[in-house]
Protein 1
Amino acid sequence: MTLRLPTKIIVLAVCLFGGLLVVSVLLYAVLIAFKSPGEGFGAGSPWWPERFQWGNLLAPFQVAPFATYFRNSIVVGVAVTVLNVITCTAAGYSFSKFTYPGRTAAFVVVLATLMVPLEVLYVPLYHLVYRLDWVDSFAGLIIPAATSAFGIFLMKQSIDSVPDELLEAARLDGAGELRTLVSIVVPGVTAPMSALALFIFMSNWDSHLWPLLVASDDDHRTLPVGLAAMQANQLGDTGVPVIVMAALLALLPTVLLFLALQRRFVSGIAMTAGIR
């Protein structure tokens, strides 16, 4: 579909306005992060700091166990992402390329779980985690999030585009199902796998309610829970630059990951949607 020139101009203008709005908010946050505690932050206050406080870069690590929060988020985020990519790709391969009794019903059940709010599951899930003695442990943060219905759907739709002839040729050559999955299917769906990895990492990185329920000690708190605790402890305007700096540092991994995977992300979503 080709857009007419006036439509293109309107679309570009809207995108430009949205981009400038996001950049201005981010710039304002950066400038606040480098202000001194005594400077104003509300309406009518100057944007530019009177003097850049470069020591604010280290302040989050000095007033709280921010390094521990950061490490925990990295460990949990990477583990959950890797497990989701593996389990969702394997399940998507099963739903896409195998025929067995109950396959369609099982896939419908998986899709139906997308309509169930996570908050509804938190009470029975917490009870299970408590019975397994996974409270205040990485197992309680990682294993309940090891797969996702959205990821299974995404990978199933992507693997549908892999020709069956390639799989039959690999099997005729003596390759087992695991070898076929790793050597034939995975190279053809690396873009959707990258898109899935980005989705899962970002959603897990920003997750707050479940880590708040199962990780109450600093040794297992992730960044969203840690930032909330820091905000509660840094009362008044004096702690605003430190909290904003901590939030900006917490934002860096997701921004860098998106920049690294943005091309694969776009191509993966286009492939899943059937766009050529």
Protein 2
Amino acid sequence: MTTPEENAPVRGARPMRRPGVGRDAVLALGLLGTAVAGVAAFVKAASADGVRMPVAPVAAVAVLLLGVFLAKWSLAPVRRRPAGYAETPAELPDVGGDALDHAAVDADGFEHTVAALCARDGCTAVEVVGGAGDLGADVLATTADGRRVVLQCKHYAEDHRVGSQDLQRFGGTCFAVHGADVAVLVTTSSFTAPAAEYADTCGILRVDGEALAAWTEQQAPPPWESPRACAAPSS
């Protein structure tokens, strides 16, 4: 059973910026050059046919129209998902400092609440991957210092404890298949003694219902910041 420790500072989300500023500038200059070259070719062709064109006004209008287009394009909002979320913001609950009622959601919803906790506490590349064929991984995340976190979520009733078979199935894939640096099994209930012993032997972190409440309320650090967090065992 994990024990609450001192509060860990919560890292805020980074502000979103339009990516590729240098690339955008090159693209804008390329469009400008194309427009000017096109106007010049048109004027040259018209002159060859004996048609006199007001070169300066035509070029000025072309450049003006291109400038308006580029200004609208550069100021358009960037519709991207926030860093650290695999789902849209509406699909991941906003986890604040108050306790979240994990028992009020179903098993799929529980995976999303755990993913939201990971994102809140500084993880990036957070993915909810639970489902058929997940090979024991429900949530994947990357810590701020680059460690890969693999979490399995067990949404059990209080009297349904996580057994050793649950831990053995997870232990067989979390490191070898998913490449975990930190493997965590999170449950709304508790662990049997054999399950706890197996987890401790294999280096799997356990978060029971009590520890989950402390993590949610920010009265304990996230599992990957606990003293028991360890790297994947060497082969």
Protein 3
Amino acid sequence: MAGNRWVDPAPFEGVRPRLPWWFFLPRWVKVVLLPVGLLVLAGWLAVRLAVLAVRYPVAVFGGVTLYLVQVHGGLWGLVVVVLTGAGGLVIWAGLHRPTFVRHCWFRVLTEWRRATVYVPHWRTVTRLADLTKDNRGTEHRPKLRRVRSEGWRDRVRVKMIPAQSPDQWEARRDNLAHSFNAKSCRVRVLRPRVLELDFIHSDPLARPLAVPALSDDAAAVNLKRVVVGATENGRPWLLRLLGSQLLVVGVPGAGKGSVLWSIVWQLAPAIRAGLVRLVGIDPKGGMELGQCPDAFAKVVYDNGPDAVELLEEIAAEVKERASRYRGVRRLWARSTGEPFTVLIVDELADVIAYQTDKNLRDRATRAVQTITSQGRAPGFATVALVQDPRKEIVGFRHLFTTRVALRLDEPVQVDMVLGDGVRQRGAAAHEISENTPGVAWVKQDGQRKPERARAFHVTDADLVELSLFLTDATVHEFTGRTEGQEGMAA
């Protein structure tokens, strides 16, 4: 302190300005490099304009076209062109709405949402979500790549910064969804350092799907492409039965019955014609399969000796038919004259895990393993439904080539059912709503990307119709009935 003046003992030291490297070059070098710099700048501007045209083709080419029309045709020419184009779009939408929506409306919506939602807020959102990093004064920020809007969702491709993992984005899904005004967000890994974020605005599978009308054409039943519902992209949900084994997992009330009866419904024409044979086991006393017993050639309503004997009978048929096909054919076909057999086991755990008799439990497990591992070629498919996917319950999940995950309780169960890493590719079966039974994530061997779909909603009235459809042409053998039930059936 000197008089009334304060003297700072440590005077302010400003940061020395950092000048670019070219500032220190001699003047003649700058003159020589100036044309090169201008060419580089022109090339950079050309690339940026090309990128802009690729990302906003409707706005760029539409704007340029309208400008040229206005220059050469005047205001009235511009009005005529605008009215003609609008009328053509209205006619297109009226004649074939799906193509109009896919090729026109979604394109416009994509550009609008990219320009007004993602580009203006991308930097701020990634910063506040701690998805950026500062290194020596340089900010590393994830790059916003392609944006595609499909109405009910926006697909946003992102290139991660170095040393970043998908788990960091997975942990901030809710933050990202609310920041971009979406209901939810899915994170899918496309390839190293590249993610695709699905911002969901509505659920296309929110409403139940009515079953289609029953057909009399048995030849139209394609065992490689059985339609059991619809995917969230609007395409049919196709399940392969010929050459495949199917495992359906879900908590109570998740809609396992919807998947089961959708399969039976679509196979009904072939069942009535004798091309497909159903056998079933329902340890719940027939609460499920007993709703339409006429669909089954054989059915057992418990998990005791009758169920085990039926499984061993089917396993023996698998081996016997395979021995006859040896050297003749490699895969079952309708020309063999033998029916394609579908074994349906409702609550598989009751048969192979919860059965108190160890001998019956081991016999059932061996029989199911034989059918699932050897039944593909001779024309046997297993449709197994279970609630608990743990390894100690179903230790041979790998034998099921098609796996369906309905609503599950925990994230770890998704990987148990669909395979390791599938949840990172977007299969969030643990987030399926209780209000949408029948919605599932599906994974087939050889298919990297899981698919979200919903099975048909088969009502009690539909099962009555199915029973009447099958009654006239099928003869069934039932086991596990009481004498009173047999008298009623007679």
